[in-house]
């Protein structure tokens, strides 16, 4: 087969149909990645316009441009858009587009999940923007502190838009996190050991793992607050045993790691682009990886530095202060590793390097003010002033936007296949750099002179007038710079000349393909023996195009890519990925209907889309797999491997593990909330505690144990080929989970006080609801196994589906036991 | 060193750092020590910035052979040892300073109850004949430590008189205590620092620090 006919055949398999059919059905990572990036930039523009309105209002004292009603919406939406609709999706887009290419793979592990995440992001984001256009946007700040955001003080729909819209968008963040993790761990080119991965893959792996555990606390907090607003369950109401501080803990438990989740991918771009600009290898690869792991660990131990003024004892603050300062060490390590790399090489002042220099200047200043704010006494003064506004923009614009702009110019030839038009990018750089510093450097002083955040106006005698005017002028200069960047990119896409194949002379695998990248990435997958494959073998692109690597053979129209051992990168099995389908967009629409029903208060309607999502989810799993015997298939180079349905540890199993880690973090946050309210909240103990319920609890516990054991029995019988036994055990498991659901509901209804009376009852009911939901999921898994045995999909040696069902069965059992222990604890201890 | 810093502080306060809400134009002991911490940190940050920028600039100079220095210098020395040392010193200093400013039991402390509302403050002072309640004006004796017991009745607010001390949140359902003092008699502006809804910008109050005679008069119930 010639290179050209292989290109045509692979494009037919991996490409998407033209026109709207392709738009709604494509699951290809390059398509989805590009869409994420473009949409994130559009949201960035909207957030930027809001920022300009804010600066227009603050330019002069006593301005009558907007009133507090509008201003509160402006700053709330500016923050929310930049965090949730720009920064996170932008990095997701970059990861989706680049990761498979850098890892020598043909797609991500769960292409349909990428598409589902994309649609959730677009639909959720649209809800927020529609609310903004209609003047009912969230207005309680992006941090949504209760009680200001609770029903009594924000009676309108505004807060619901935030809670539901952002949670909808977060589905895409969690699915991206799971997908990125599994793709990096399993979907690499054979031979790419963990320590041969490009550094960006390490950064993205650590980021994705952080997201798996950082987002659930916020999702839980949003659910609890929405339930409080909608049904009056008083989790955060101090009069009924709730605590506003619980919201702050849940929010910042997410909110601080979030900052590093935004910074790390951008730092990964620095670690990728900077050595290429300096014509050398990065200094201290292993040290940087160690620094990342330290950073990820530490970032979960310093959320309280957002709460230094909430009255937590000073010695406890000292611990979080030390952790906040300590996090500067792994950051400094990276800064000096980068500077050392520049010293080691011969840096050239090309445009990406210019943006990296901007990054250094701004980010170092932001880091230093961060250390200042980590000192408790100084924070007592600077907290909630414009000093913090300056600091966070130095960190986020310096630490995310500038590296991303460097990355944009570095990878644009890859996206477009075209070269840059000279000078426009340089002009944009200077406008952004000067405008940024004029806007935000002065804000340090404005803050020290006492200007608080989130005030819509100020009197003229405070000494802030000139500073604010100059900041506003700077912000408009910066906005011109970004507009110029957008023009530059548009010109490059539509007008510029073609680029060379590897314009920067880089050594990572994303440059080992024709530009713009084909839908299948690699005509055949490489065997990697070096951290910089193109340095060791400059002819690699040619040989891959000729089909001299893995999986060059085309069969059955399958989308095939290699799965490797997590650490050694040895060949493990062949993954057959699902092709284009409309299931993701339809499922996202059904999910969106659920959120809209809640948003407009049609609670009686909400179960309908939930049923639809359940049915679609079933179909999602059902359409995969096949009944025929496959066995080992040839993969090239005389080797053979099993396909993923017959190999242990397929991506579906790994994805389920990380989903359950996220789910477990959500449960952990709920149990933390329950304990926190017992210890800290006012108006405890509750007027009414659980008085009986041991019989129901015993039934639920025994049924949960039976459900777990029966699912395990069904799984092992299924893999052994004993269909009749497996089917019987699965039926019994369905029955056991039904008993769990009934017993939990019986326990709640018969013995627990009404959830609206006190936070104790509300949190007990929340735990019961969690247990019921997970028993139901385990029930569906067992029923699925039974149906797949009947249809002949599960047969001897097919481990994937049974192993996933077993995971969910185990988890449901464990969750039910934990929940029963917590719900019944007051009874047992009394 | 500290004396020198204090002198500089005063000089800078006169030239541009003053203002009704300025944290650098200090009039209370907590605010003064925090301002000292700030100037010390600013000096340190300036030195570090110059160091990093110089190293960065030097990387671009033309040179015949690649410059020396491996992971030992760049990562072990500059990346780990240097920031660890600086941070350790700074943390110790800040922790000690924070310990001094928190409200501990002491003789002669005046206790005032403050309750925050959308959008006003009520202060309950000890008087000769029971409590004296004022709205949006807090009365304290100059030169004596004052503890404010903060409560909020609707949403979260934050008590902040920048020239006297740092801020402390007033949270519904919780009571927080902050200690402030004014060295000299005078009037000082206060501002709610936690976003509290539509009236947040105008959620302000005033602190009147009395001399000994004035304070006695206030406690007797005479209007100042």
TrEMBL record, chain A:
<feature type="transmembrane region" description="Helical">
    <location>
        <begin position="388"/>
        <end position="411"/>
    </location>
</feature>
<feature type="transmembrane region" description="Helical">
    <location>
        <begin position="118"/>
        <end position="137"/>
    </location>
</feature>
<keyword id="KW-0249">Electron transport</keyword>
<keyword id="KW-0408">Iron</keyword>
<keyword id="KW-0349">Heme</keyword>
<keyword id="KW-0679">Respiratory chain</keyword>
<keyword id="KW-1133">Transmembrane helix</keyword>
<feature type="transmembrane region" description="Helical">
    <location>
        <begin position="729"/>
        <end position="747"/>
    </location>
</feature>
<dbReference type="InterPro" id="IPR035973">
    <property type="entry name" value="Cyt_c_oxidase_su3-like_sf"/>
</dbReference>
<comment type="pathway">
    <text>Energy metabolism; oxidative phosphorylation.</text>
</comment>
<feature type="transmembrane region" description="Helical">
    <location>
        <begin position="767"/>
        <end position="787"/>
    </location>
</feature>
<feature type="domain" description="Cytochrome oxidase subunit I profile">
    <location>
        <begin position="8"/>
        <end position="529"/>
    </location>
</feature>
<feature type="transmembrane region" description="Helical">
    <location>
        <begin position="199"/>
        <end position="225"/>
    </location>
</feature>
<feature type="transmembrane region" description="Helical">
    <location>
        <begin position="74"/>
        <end position="98"/>
    </location>
</feature>
<dbReference type="InterPro" id="IPR000883">
    <property type="entry name" value="Cyt_C_Oxase_1"/>
</dbReference>
<comment type="similarity">
    <text>Belongs to the heme-copper respiratory oxidase family.</text>
</comment>
<feature type="transmembrane region" description="Helical">
    <location>
        <begin position="354"/>
        <end position="376"/>
    </location>
</feature>
<keyword id="KW-0472">Membrane</keyword>
<dbReference type="InterPro" id="IPR036927">
    <property type="entry name" value="Cyt_c_oxase-like_su1_sf"/>
</dbReference>
<feature type="transmembrane region" description="Helical">
    <location>
        <begin position="466"/>
        <end position="491"/>
    </location>
</feature>
<keyword id="KW-0186">Copper</keyword>
<dbReference type="InterPro" id="IPR023616">
    <property type="entry name" value="Cyt_c_oxase-like_su1_dom"/>
</dbReference>
<feature type="transmembrane region" description="Helical">
    <location>
        <begin position="653"/>
        <end position="677"/>
    </location>
</feature>
<feature type="transmembrane region" description="Helical">
    <location>
        <begin position="583"/>
        <end position="604"/>
    </location>
</feature>
<feature type="transmembrane region" description="Helical">
    <location>
        <begin position="808"/>
        <end position="829"/>
    </location>
</feature>
<feature type="transmembrane region" description="Helical">
    <location>
        <begin position="282"/>
        <end position="304"/>
    </location>
</feature>
<feature type="transmembrane region" description="Helical">
    <location>
        <begin position="161"/>
        <end position="187"/>
    </location>
</feature>
<keyword id="KW-0479">Metal-binding</keyword>
<dbReference type="InterPro" id="IPR014241">
    <property type="entry name" value="Cyt_c_oxidase_su1_bac"/>
</dbReference>
<dbReference type="Pfam" id="PF00115">
    <property type="entry name" value="COX1"/>
</dbReference>
<protein>
    <recommendedName>
        <fullName>cytochrome-c oxidase</fullName>
        <ecNumber>7.1.1.9</ecNumber>
    </recommendedName>
</protein>
<keyword id="KW-1278">Translocase</keyword>
<feature type="transmembrane region" description="Helical">
    <location>
        <begin position="36"/>
        <end position="54"/>
    </location>
</feature>
<dbReference type="InterPro" id="IPR023615">
    <property type="entry name" value="Cyt_c_Oxase_su1_BS"/>
</dbReference>
<feature type="transmembrane region" description="Helical">
    <location>
        <begin position="423"/>
        <end position="446"/>
    </location>
</feature>
<keyword id="KW-1003">Cell membrane</keyword>
<keyword id="KW-0812">Transmembrane</keyword>
<dbReference type="InterPro" id="IPR013833">
    <property type="entry name" value="Cyt_c_oxidase_su3_a-hlx"/>
</dbReference>
<keyword id="KW-0813">Transport</keyword>
<feature type="transmembrane region" description="Helical">
    <location>
        <begin position="245"/>
        <end position="270"/>
    </location>
</feature>
<feature type="transmembrane region" description="Helical">
    <location>
        <begin position="316"/>
        <end position="342"/>
    </location>
</feature>
């Amino acid at each position: 087969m010639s290179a050209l006919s292989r290109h045509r055949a692979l494009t037919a398999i991996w490409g998407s149909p033209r026109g709207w059919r392709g738009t709604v059905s494509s699951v290809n990572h390059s398509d989805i990645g590009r869409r994420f990036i473009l949409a994130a930039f559009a949201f960035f523009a909207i957030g930027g316009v809001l920022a300009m309105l804010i600066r227009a209002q603050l330019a002069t004292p006593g301005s009558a441009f907007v009133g507090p009603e509008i201003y509160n919406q402006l700053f709330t939406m500016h923050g929310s858009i930049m965090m949730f609709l720009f920064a996170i999706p932008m990095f997701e887009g970059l990861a989706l587009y680049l990761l498979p290419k850098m890892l020598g793979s043909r797609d991500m592990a769960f292409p349909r999940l990428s598409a589902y995440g994309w649609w959730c992001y677009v639909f959720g984001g649209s809800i927020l923007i529609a609310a903004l256009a209609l003047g009912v946007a969230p207005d309680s700040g992006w941090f949504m502190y209760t009680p200001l955001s609770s029903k009594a003080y924000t009676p309108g729909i505004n807060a619901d838009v935030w809670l539901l819209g952002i949670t909808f968008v977060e589905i895409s963040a969690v699915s991206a996190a799971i997908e990125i993790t599994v793709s990096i761990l399993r979907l690499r080119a054979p031979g790419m050991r963990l320590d041969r991965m490009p550094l960006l893959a390490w950064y993205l792996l650590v980021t994705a793992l952080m997201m798996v555990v950082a987002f659930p606390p916020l999702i839980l907090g949003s659910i609890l607050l929405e339930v409080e607003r909608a049904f009056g369950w008083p989790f955060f109401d101090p009069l009924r045993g709730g605590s506003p501080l619980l919201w702050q803990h849940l929010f910042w438990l997410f909110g601080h790691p979030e900052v590093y989740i935004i910074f790390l991918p951008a730092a990964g771009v620095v670690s990728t682009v900077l050595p290429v600009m300096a014509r050398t290898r990065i200094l201290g690869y292993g040290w940087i990886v160690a620094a990342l792991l330290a950073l990820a660990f530490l970032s979960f131990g310093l959320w309280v530095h957002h709460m230094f003024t909430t009255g937590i004892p000073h010695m406890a603050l000292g611990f979080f202060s030390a952790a906040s300062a300590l996090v500067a060490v792994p950051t400094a390590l990276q800064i000096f590793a980068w500077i050392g790399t520049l010293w080691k090489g011969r840096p050239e002042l090309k445009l990406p390097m210019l943006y990296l220099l901007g990054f250094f200047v701004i980010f170092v200043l932001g880091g230093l003010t961060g250390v200042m704010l980590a000192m408790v006494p100084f924070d007592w003064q600077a907290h909630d002033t414009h000093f913090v506004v300056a600091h966070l923009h130095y960190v986020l614009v310096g630490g995310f936007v500038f590296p991303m702009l460097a990355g944009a110019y570095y990878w644009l030839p890859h996206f477009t296949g075209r070269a840059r038009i000279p000078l426009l990018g340089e002009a944009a750089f200077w406008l952004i750099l000067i405008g940024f510093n004029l806007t935000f450097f002065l804000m340090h002083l404005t803050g020290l002179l006492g200007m608080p955040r989130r005030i819509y106006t100020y009197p003229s005698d405070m000494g802030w007038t000139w500073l604010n005017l100059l900041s506003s002028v700077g912000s408009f200069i910066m906005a011109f710079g970004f507009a110029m960047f957008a023009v530059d990119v548009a010109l490059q896409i539509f007008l510029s000349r073609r680029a060379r194949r590897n314009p920067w002379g880089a050594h990572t695998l994303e440059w080992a393909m024709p530009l713009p990248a084909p839908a299948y990435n690699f005509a055949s997958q490489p065997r990697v023996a070096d951290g910089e494959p193109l340095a060791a073998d400059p002819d690699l692109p040619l040989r891959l195009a000729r089909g001299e690597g893995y999986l060059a053979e085309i069969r059955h129209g399958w989308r095939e890519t290699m799965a490797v051992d997590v650490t050694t990168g040895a060949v493990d099995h062949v993954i057959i990925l699902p092709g284009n389908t409309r299931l993701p967009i339809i499922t996202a629409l059904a999910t969106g209907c659920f959120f809209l029903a809640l948003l407009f208060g049609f609670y009686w309607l909400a179960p309908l889309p939930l049923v639809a999502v359940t049915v679609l989810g079933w179909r999602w799993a059902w359409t995969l797999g096949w009944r025929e015997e496959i066995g080992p298939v040839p993969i090239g180079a005389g080797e053979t491997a099993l396909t993923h349905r017959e190999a242990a540890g397929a991506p579906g199993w790994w994805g389920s593990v990380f989903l359950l880690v996220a789910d477990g973090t959500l449960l952990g946050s709920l149990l933390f909330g329950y304990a926190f309210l017992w210890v800290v909240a006012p108006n405890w103990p509750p007027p009414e505690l659980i008085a009986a319920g041991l019989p129901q609890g015993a039934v639920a516990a025994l049924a949960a144990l039976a459900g777990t054991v029966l699912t395990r029995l069904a799984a092992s019988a299924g893999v052994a080929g004993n269909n009749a036994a497996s089917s019987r055990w699965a039926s019994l498991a369905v029955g056991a989970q039904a008993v769990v659901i009934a017993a939990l509901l019986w326990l709640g209804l018969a013995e627990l006080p009404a959830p609206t009376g006190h936070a104790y009852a509300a949190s007990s009911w929340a735990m019961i609801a969690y247990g019921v939901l997970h028993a139901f999921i385990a029930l569906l898994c067992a029923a699925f196994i039974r149906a797949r045995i009947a249809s002949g999909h599960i047969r001897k040696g097919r481990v994937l589906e049974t192993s996933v069902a077993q995971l969910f069965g185990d988890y449901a059992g464990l969750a039910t036991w934990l929940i029963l222990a917590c719900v019944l604890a007051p009874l047992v201890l009394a | 060193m500290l004396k020198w810093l204090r002198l500089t502080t005063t000089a800078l306060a006169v030239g541009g750092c003053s203002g009704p809400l300025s944290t650098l134009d200090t009039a209370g002991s907590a605010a003064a020590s925090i301002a000292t911490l700030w100037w010390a940190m600013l000096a340190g940050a300036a030195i570090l910035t110059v160091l990093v920028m110089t190293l960065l600039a030097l990387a671009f100079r033309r040179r015949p052979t690649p410059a020396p220095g491996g992971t030992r210098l760049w990562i072990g020395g500059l990346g780990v040892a240097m920031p660890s040392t600086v941070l350790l010193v700074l943390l110790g200093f800040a922790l000690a300073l924070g310990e001094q400013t928190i409200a501990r039991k002491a003789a002669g402390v005046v206790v005032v109850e403050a309750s925050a509302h959308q959008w006003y403050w009520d202060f309950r002072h000890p008087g000769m004949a029971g409590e004296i309640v004022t709205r949006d004006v807090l009365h304290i004796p100059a030169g004596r430590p004052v503890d404010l017991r903060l409560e909020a009745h609707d949403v979260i607010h934050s008590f902040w008189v920048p020239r006297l001390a740092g801020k402390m949140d007033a949270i519904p359902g919780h009571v927080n205590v902050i200690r402030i003092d004014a060295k000299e008699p005078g009037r000082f502006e206060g501002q709610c620092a936690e976003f509290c809804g539509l009236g947040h910008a105008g959620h302000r109050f005033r602190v009147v620090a009395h001399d000994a005679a004035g304070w006695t008069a206030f406690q007797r119930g005479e209007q100042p």
